[in-house]
Amino acid sequence: MKQFSHFSLKNHNSFALDVYCDSFVVLDSVKDAVEAVNKGLFLKKFFILGGGSNVLFASDFQGTVIHPAFGGISLVEDNGTSVLIEVAAGESWENFVNYAIENGYYGVENLIGIPGNVGSAPVQNIGAYGVEVKDVLVEVRAISLLTGEPVVLSNEQCAFGYRDSIFKHELKGKVLITNIIFKLSKKKNFTLSYTPLKNAVADIKKLTINDVANAVLSIRNAKLPKVGEIGSAGSFFKNPVLPAETVNSLLLSNPDLNYYNIGNDLVKLSAAQLIDLAGCKSWRAGAVSVFPTQPLVIVNYGGATGSEIVDFYKKIQSAVFEMFNVKLEPEVNIL
């Protein structure tokens, strides 16, 4: 375990904001995490920071930032048709996806290109192109921040929802995720429900896992800023989920709205389309801007402050609400 005072987080958040925390603690093992509990580091204000790809620091963080840095990927079980893989929280998501692809394990190829660390994936229930983490996750292993004792949660106990989980609610600030068990298929099995992805591979006769992964990367790279080159946190807003009755009323005056029935009399709208129709697609204020090819993404072209990004996203929220009476909720964790 390593501890630093008055530490710059510029290299630990994908918005590239030069903010500071009072203390920065690097955990190099699960043993370090238990030691941090025993030392009382979680009794004062803290924040657990993985890859920093889904967080917006509105200002300096007056507390301790805990950074799990322990990685590792191991094959737990292979029954011939599927595998169980254990991945440490500090492992990069990209490394895990590449490992699966290289070994011919199907299930996460649609999630290639997503920045961040594995430990953050179940918190957000990350998803893209028709696949979510909940579809491949078997078990989350963690430690209690009260006692340091192990905590194990099954997929069902994680209470996954759209960009949501128990880790954002009942267990928020109460556990630290250490390892995740994933179940992937050894049999060819693709998810091509996302139309642009389906169209991108339609002409490939003998489709491979690499074909799908490359198609996903092409789609992502055509729409999203390059990680590490332009500051952003990916999709800033969630797609709003509303009662069908509410959406039907909206469609009367906005018949061209894209919508997706998701069951239980609920309908999902496209936040990107709402932002576009509200006239925000070309907005820019100093170094902060809506990314030209994807309205869901807010970017920092360099030198912006966290408070400037907060002001900017709130103006988008207001514009969309004024036009559609729909409040967009941030997907990004704002501190």
Task: Characterise the protein shown here.
By secondary structure, the protein is an alpha+beta fold. 24% of the residues lie in helices and 30% in strands. The protein has a five-stranded antiparallel sheet with strand order 6-7-12-10-11. The protein is globular. 39% of the residues are buried. The model has no long low-confidence stretch (mean pLDDT 95).
- CA-based shape: globular
Q: How many β-strands, per DSSP? A: 20
Can you tell me the CATH architecture of the largest domain? 2-Layer Sandwich
On the 0 to 100 scale, the average pLDDT is 95
How far do the termini sit from each other? Answer: 24 Å
Main traits of this protein?
single chain, alpha+beta, 8 helices, Uridine Diphospho-n-acetylenolpyruvylglucosamine Reductase, domain 1, globular, Uridine Diphospho-n-acetylenolpyruvylglucosamine Reductase, domain 3, 335 residues, 3 domains, 5-stranded antiparallel beta sheet, 24% helix, Uridine Diphospho-n-acetylenolpyruvylglucosamine Reductase, domain 2
Write a short abstract of this structure.
This protein is 24% helix and 30% strand.
Task: Give the SSE layout.
Layout: E1 2-8, E2 20-27, H1 30-38, E3 46-48, E4 55-56, E5 61-68, E6 73-78, E7 82-88, H2 93-102, H3 121-124, E8 127-128, E9 131-132, E10 137-144, E11 150-154, E12 175-185, H4 195-200, H5 209-223, E13 231-235, E14 241-243, H6 244-253, E15 259-263, E16 266-269, H7 271-277, E17 284-285, E18 288-291, E19 294-300, H8 306-324, E20 333-334
Parallel strand pairs: 2-5, 3-5, 4-20
Antiparallel strand pairs: 1-2, 6-7, 7-12, 8-9, 10-11, 10-12, 13-19, 14-16, 15-16, 17-18, 18-19
